[in-house]
Amino acid sequence: MNKKTHFGFQEVDEADKSKFVGDVFTSVAKNYDVMNDAMSFGMHRLWKKILVELASVGEKDVILDVASGTGDISKLISKEYPNTKVFMSDINYEMLDEGRNRAIDESFDDNCYFCQLSGETLPFKDNTFDLITVGFGLRNFTNKEYGLKEMRRCLKKNGKLLILEFSKPMNPIFSKLYDWYSFNILPRLGSMLANDSDSYKYLAESIRMHPDQERLKQMMESAGFNECRFHNLLNGVVAIHIGYHD
Ligand SMILES: C[S@@+](CC[C@H](N)C(=O)[O-])C[C@H]1O[C@@H](n2cnc3c(N)ncnc32)[C@H](O)[C@@H]1O
């Protein structure tokens, strides 16, 4: 029997998930930034700034931005710390291409390198990076445990992983409102602004299937990270998880 996983609320063969996820991001790539601003009322920009603050980037750090997409996190780091080396990486060519074009257009490409790769099988030696970031990417992995172990392997001793991801709201009333927004408004916004309601239905479903704050913290600990902790943002709609390699 083929191993199963989730693609949103659907159960699919593990072997098929990355193709389905790939189709979603190929479809949204051109409208990704506009949709992000519309869906989050611009708040994703603040969440990413907080991630970079919490990362305490060193002036000459070597950094891997996994699932970098159109490059918001890479841009913040690259502009603020021009002597770092930032590896922008994404499994999806169209998303990486949007990020690369943007890096050139917005002049943050000097210290950036562009790699098409899966965060689940990193083609880097052990102990390569001072910092690894993943913004809204882990949710889409087929096997999050492999991904976390790979990221730990590629971090230097004392290196850190920061994961920004949708999570679980703490307040039950707020949670109900958020559910209503996610399943009624998001797909409509997707349809109006990007002519693509299915991808935004997947977004809402994939968020619900993603491990909550405590579970993701446990997964990081099981993958070998130390001093794991998380910070809730917007009542836990989003959380930033942090863990260290020793
Ligand atoms: C929601 S976007 C996030 C982009 C960007 N980090 C941001 O915060 O705006 C998710 C990205 O994850 C990428 N992705 C999905 N599965 C991946 C995997 N296994 N390895 C690397 N990237 C992946 C997608 O191609 C997509 O660009």
TrEMBL record:
CDD domains: AdoMet_MTases (cd02440). Pathway: Cofactor biosynthesis; ubiquinone biosynthesis; Quinol/quinone metabolism; menaquinone biosynthesis; menaquinol from 1,4-dihydroxy-2-naphthoate: step 2/2. It catalyses: a 2-demethylmenaquinol + S-adenosyl-L-methionine = a menaquinol + S-adenosyl-L-homocysteine + H(+); a 2-methoxy-6-(all-trans-polyprenyl)benzene-1,4-diol + S-adenosyl-L-methionine = a 5-methoxy-2-methyl-3-(all-trans-polyprenyl)benzene-1,4-diol + S-adenosyl-L-homocysteine + H(+). InterPro entries: SAM-dependent_MTases_sf, UbiE/COQ5_MeTrFase, UbiE/COQ5_MeTrFase_CS. GO terms for molecular function: 2-methoxy-6-polyprenyl-1,4-benzoquinol methyltransferase activity; demethylmenaquinone methyltransferase activity. GO terms for biological process: aerobic respiration; menaquinone biosynthetic process; methylation. S-adenosyl-L-methionine binds at T70, D90. PANTHER family: 2-METHOXY-6-POLYPRENYL-1,4-BENZOQUINOL METHYLASE, MITOCHONDRIAL (PTHR43591:SF24), METHYLTRANSFERASE (PTHR43591). Methyltransferase required for the conversion of demethylmenaquinol (DMKH2) to menaquinol (MKH2) and the conversion of 2-polyprenyl-6-methoxy-1,4-benzoquinol (DDMQH2) to 2-polyprenyl-3-methyl-6-methoxy-1,4-benzoquinol (DMQH2). This is Ubiquinone/menaquinone biosynthesis C-methyltransferase UbiE.
